[in-house]
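Example record

One chain of 296 residues, shown exactly as stored in the release files.
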Amino acid sequence: VDGLARLHVAALVLACLTGMAAAGPGRADPPRATAPATVVPGCEDFARRLPNVSRALCMAAGLQPGSGRSVRGVPLYTRDIQPEGAKLRVLVTGAIHGDELSSASLALHWIALAQQPPQMPQPVHWRFVPVLNPDGVLHQPPRRMNANGVDLNRNFPTPNWERDAPVYWDKRTRKDPRRWPGPKPLSEPESRFLHEQMQTFRPHLIVAIHAPYGVLDFDGPSVPPSRLGRLYLDQVGIFPGSLGNYGGVHKGVPVVTIELPNSMRTPLEAEMRQMWLDLLRWMGEKSLGSPADTGR
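Predicted structure tokens for this chain:
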């Protein structure tokens, strides 16, 4: 990954020259701060920042720069694992909130497990995006929002976003800057990248890893898993602009949301493996239909 990351130095020059305009006079939105370029991270950076992630684990993940970049020009890394004959497609995301470091760590550990011999009768094409918000992860200290101050998990184009998302932010969160949904849906390069993955990869299932509430959530069709490891199902509702609302409710793609119990510390190795095995078992028991037409 380190060598690949250096290929993107030219992109950083452009990022240095790019500033995001501040909000105009009279707007209630938080200002969109200028996002200066940062050093493109590789496994050295991720290993230093993420809990329970060694450089060797990160290198073995075989991350590749995806088609998108963060506000500050950092590549959004992906990893595809596609056994022969795999038709079932599963998209796994981590660290959409930059201060939920353990979510990225779990995704990297799961990449290692996904590379082991298949444990399901039906082969699975996995696509991992372990660090969707690298600017938030690498911020000092790590922060929930991206470099524009947007909560990426409130930036997806759910129906009536323009009406509901600002009202929810204003009335329910009392304009909490950590939960600002942005000026419009898909205003951010990171949310646009994930939206593009949904359109092109067309997953049958999305697994979104978060922290630190210690529960299991589910949106969309089908019967949800009752537990993954020590996390039990506790559906907490939907929010305007969230991935669960957009993918699970609006597009009909099941979204399993994992809320790890601690954002700065991963579960034990045995627990992470048990969560993986429970996910595979549930996938084997349920009937995954055709993915929704996310291009509509």
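Notes: The longest helix spans residues 269-285.
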